[in-house]
Design goal:
The protein is mostly helical and about 300 residues long. The chain has eleven helices and three strands, in the order αβααβαααβααααα. The protein has a three-stranded mixed sheet with strand order 2-1-3. The N terminus is likely disordered.
């Protein structure tokens, strides 16, 4: 963006989810509860992994990183959205919008790469169980986590720069947060190049981890089918069920938002799907990994038992 446009566009107006006051109050209560549940659930996951030594495995290391990313991602958008529900003037300063867009892009991209890394972890656990601890050593886990976060932030930096270099004709964003496609609609020049870059970014951030997930689970399914005992098959599948549920939600939602043809999309549809991904998915992740995971449930009972003994 040219300097004069940056000076003139000092803030943006976010239209949010509704203009009706009664609806906004109801949405405030609903999303406040969901926000608090998200924070509590993910903090509990982090606490359990920290306090219970039996969860000090690569799988739960990646889960702790994912919970941390979910907490940060939720905090990048939801607190502002809650304030705007009760505000008559829903504005966000220009540089705050840039920061919000870059952070949400970085954390969102990092989450997809983390899901790919977690799929590889499940592949090694099921297909190479005897070599699992040797292959998934601490150095590799730290490297994969750092690589996932680094890739997310590099992609975000590229998207943010090319988005805010465009001259903007107006400052009203039809969204509840600063989001790439919503900001691009403000441009008064051709955005074909930006849309191509969004498609390339979507391929790299979404489709590459998705291919890794499909590759990993293809080998996992083949390995499970070779197990003769029914109990062994259930145990092997149970080790992957929680991650597979998360993958289905995250990849399905974002592919629907960004990979479908632009002609078939609308601002309202993108808003709803983005809302599901930004609020609902981070809230559900702890429940998926606790209610469907015996190790996490056992760890919670052990930690509660230790606190009761101290009392």
């Amino acid at each position: 963006m040219r300097k004069e446009n940056q000076t003139w566009m000092s803030e943006f107006i976010l239209l949010g989810l509704s203009s009706c006051w009664e609806t906004q109050v109801s949405l405030f209560v609903l999303f406040l509860v969901m926000y608090l549940v998200t924070l509590l659930g993910n903090f509990i996951i982090l606490l359990l992994i920290r306090l219970d030594s039996r969860l000090n495995t690569p799988m739960y290391f990646f889960l702790s990183v994912l919970s941390f990313v979910d907490i940060c991602y939720t905090n990048s958008t939801v607190p502002q959205m809650l304030v705007h529900f009760l505000s008559a003037w829903k504005s966000i300063p220009f540089y705050s919008c840039v920061l919000q867009l870059s952070i949400s892009l970085a954390l969102g991209g990092s989450e997809f790469f983390l899901l790919g890394a977690m799929a590889y972890d499940r592949y090694v656990a099921v297909c190479h169980p005897l070599r699992y601890t040797v292959i998934m050593h601490g150095g590799l886990c730290l490297g994969l986590a750092a690589g996932c976060l680094g890739a997310g932030f590099v992609n975000s930096l590229m998207e943010t720069i090319i988005t805010f270099r465009l001259p903007l004709c107006h400052n009203v964003i039809n969204h509840f947060a600063c989001e790439v496609l919503a900001v691009l609609r403000l441009s008064c020049v051709d955005i074909s190049f930006n849309m191509v870059m969004v498609a390339i970014s979507g391929f790299l951030v979404i489709m590459l981890p998705c291919v890794l997930v499909l590759f990993s689970y293809g080998h996992i399914v083949a390995a499970i089918l070779r197990i003769r005992s029914t109990q062994g098959r259930h145990k092997a599948f149970g080790a992957c069920a929680s991650h597979l549920t998360m993958v289905s939600m995250c990849f399905g939602t974002v592919i629907f938002t960004y990979v479908r043809p632009a002609a078939g999309s609308s601002a309202e549809q993108e808003k709803m799907v983005s809302l599901f991904y930004a609020v609902v998915t981070p809230m559900l992740n702890p429940f998926i990994y606790s209610l469907r995971n015996k190790e996490v449930m056992s760890a919670s009972r052990r930690v509660l038992g230790k606190f009761n003994e101290k009392k």
